[in-house]
Amino acid sequence: MTYCCAMRLQDGMVFISDTRTNAGVDHISVFRKLYTFGVSNERFIVIQTSGNLATTQAVIGHLQNQLELKLEPNLYSLNTMFEVAELVGHTLRKVIADVTSDTVEQSNYFCSLLVGGQIGSAEMQLYNIYPQGNFIAATPDTPFFQIGESKYGKPILDRALKYDMPLHDALRCSLISFDSTLRSNVSVGMPLDALVYQKDTLRVPVGKRIYEEDSYFSVISKQWSETLKRGLQTMPEPTEDYFN
Amino acid sequence: MTYCCAMRLQDGMVFISDTRTNAGVDHISVFRKLYTFGVSNERFIVIQTSGNLATTQAVIGHLQNQLELKLEPNLYSLNTMFEVAELVGHTLRKVIADVTSDTVEQSNYFCSLLVGGQIGSAEMQLYNIYPQGNFIAATPDTPFFQIGESKYGKPILDRALKYDMPLHDALRCSLISFDSTLRSNVSVGMPLDALVYQKDTLRVPVGKRIYEEDSYFSVISKQWSETLKRGLQTMPEPTEDYFN
């Protein structure tokens, strides 16, 4: 399985992906699911992937190949993030159709993608691209998308994430979302790839690979457990009618 | 959808079910999914249901009918909770097979059940009954089961629920698990049915129906949001390398 989360906020964007893939519980591997592209002072693009690994690698492969051979259109020739999302969606649809034209069988090769970034002076954009190649965009009302094993980590985002939140807070919020998911589902696993993009910088951040022994993540994880346990104990006692 | 949670702990058992059913988003209804059976000073049985509503109602209908007509075996004639789980499982399998013998089509009529209780001086038991009629039992290592939309509410249980926890704490923990689920999935809805059974009392608790305006649940829900938000703010600031 996979868990990827991306946020488009007032001050920038936050992206985190896990790296665990599995073809059965006895075939676990580490594969990067967060890819960056960019041209300094011009454009910054992130793609996160979830689903069939051959499909996701083929999509990224085609996009990189276009850049390498300077085939048009490519991620660096397009003028807007909308066009980037369209290119990625078309590429995804084509990759799946190349494997099989049987639409029922195609679902075995499905993947979902998150595409975020900023080009020139235009606004940052974040798109959730479906296996069919169509997509939706994040907005201030719905500033985050998740793909893969999204449910365990959603409650904290639903409660705490706000569009006008500082990036530091949003990062902590998303790390907690990941910690909850890691604990509840072994098919989502460390290391994590995290990336914070500050609005209008138009540079590709190096990002951080978070390993199990990462001291900050360990502190967050431990302290959050304490917060929940203590929070639970400070809740008022249930009223008597709950015990009738 | 549905969310049901049941716990078998050192001091007793906690059961909570939602009541929302939907056949499409424009066809929402309220149906009870927590059923109690019992004979004072002899036995206490709870059944919680998730899945196809006609199937779950047929299972409960058959079990009630057996009691009414004193057909053997029935929930009050069996000697152990294991036998109760077997009867419920057989009944479930038969109800589904009565609709269709096509094993692929049968999945449209699937439901899952939680069966818990205590008979005489034997230990309390909690079983998770699969659509195929077979089942697993809760243990001190794994003291809770969930059926239906279980993922949003699982992180708090994974972190905080312990077998030797007082029932008051376990109840709070499960109410928070429900609150998280209600917020993240509109197909799980109020009112909730909650029941706390104290070990060896061998009486059927009245239980409590928790409506939207329930003052205790509202306090829990609001205070929990505050706990999370405040907890998030007191986390240490991310180290600089997260922003590279």
Automatic annotation (TrEMBL), chains A, B:
Gene3D superfamilies: Glutamine Phosphoribosylpyrophosphate, subunit 1, domain 1
InterPro entries named among the record's database cross-references: Ntn_hydrolases_N (IPR029055), Proteasome_sua/b (IPR001353), UCP009120_prtse (IPR016545)
One protein family per Pfam: Proteasome
CDD domains recorded: proteasome_beta_bacterial
Superkingdom assignment: Bacteria
Name of this chain's protein: Peptidase
Lineage of the species this protein comes from: Bacteria, Pseudomonadati, Pseudomonadota, Gammaproteobacteria, Moraxellales
